[in-house]
Amino acid sequence: MNTISDLIGPLYQKLLAICSKYDISLDLDIQDPSLAFDDLSQVSEFLRLQLLRAIKNCTPGDKITITEQHNDKQVRFSVKDSGKTLDAKTQQELRDQDYEVRSRYGYDNIVTIKFDIV
Question: pTM of the prediction?
Answer without folding.
Answer: 0.90
